[in-house]
Amino acid sequence: MTEKTDVTWRALAPEDFDRVADLMGRTWLPEFDEAGQRAASRVELAHYLASATWSLVAERAGEVLGAVLLAEREGEPVDGADWAALEARERAAAERDPQAAEAVRVEMDGVEEEARLEQEYAATGAPGTAATVKLLIVAPEAKGLGLGGRLFSAAAEHLRKKGAKGYHLLTDDACDVGFYEHKGLRQAMRRRSQASWPGADPATDEFYVYVYDQEL
Description:
Blueprint: E1 8-10, H1 17-28, H2 34-49, E2 54-60, E3 63-72, H3 80-94, H4 98-122, E4 131-138, H5 147-162, E5 166-172, H6 177-182, E6 186-192, E7 208-215
Parallel strand pairs: 4-5
Antiparallel strand pairs: 1-2, 2-3, 3-4, 5-7, 6-7
Helix pairs in contact: 1-2, 2-3, 2-4
GO molecular function: acyltransferase activity, transferring groups other than amino-acyl groups
Pfam family, one: Acetyltransf_1
Organism: Candidatus Olsenella pullistercoris
């Protein structure tokens, strides 16, 4: 069994991209085939990294067990232009494979819908608009080790030290929102999705997206 004492904690490096994208694909996108998982996860991760100002990775023996990304309203993205360029290249590469292109379209339609909800939330001026948790993921094989809680707490502590008044995140019915409620976040906004998510059709399924926030 993996022990927490064996884990290294550090900022995400460019060479981590493939491993984190692979983790996202196999953890969050099981409905897609291998090509779809790879294409959609790489586009989505590059998209998040393009606005990320702070990161933390949990690694053991060369394996990424978890990661968290923050985008701070007053912060400067780390290599944001490079990640945005990578997103564009990955989108273009996916277009050469119809199945990969469709996977990217479906996944990013959901991401874009969340972004529109986030814009509504930003207009409220709530303390939580100071920062966004763009990504929080833990490998299935590392569940139960407390890595998700430690990653999340480290992100919140970073924001406290920077003087942020709060933070928020976007999530949906495919996630365990109970984790965030246990951490003290509140449901700030809720919208029925109009996007076609993997495994959910807006014409027949009630699938919701949410903003959760917390003051610091």
